[in-house]
Design a protein that fits this description.
By secondary structure, the chain is mostly helical. It has one domain. The protein is about 60% helix and about 10% strand. It is built from two helices and two strands. A two-stranded antiparallel ribbon has the order 1-2. A hairpin with a 2-residue loop joins strand 1 and strand 2.
Amino acid sequence: MRFTDINVFGVYIAPISLLMVVAWFIAIGLRRVVARFGLLNYVWHPALFSFSIYLIVLCSITLWIAGRN
């Protein structure tokens, strides 16, 4: 995939911004699963843990889309 700007109603949007939104929703879902099972109680810094999960998801999605070609 070529990472070119996407035209949305005349506004050009960088593809990474769309990937960031998708990764955010996936990270929210993962955080809810982790919180449901009480695993956040065993994490030293819950906010840092959530941020690192978000970055892992974002990087995984980006590498997956870039490697499809």
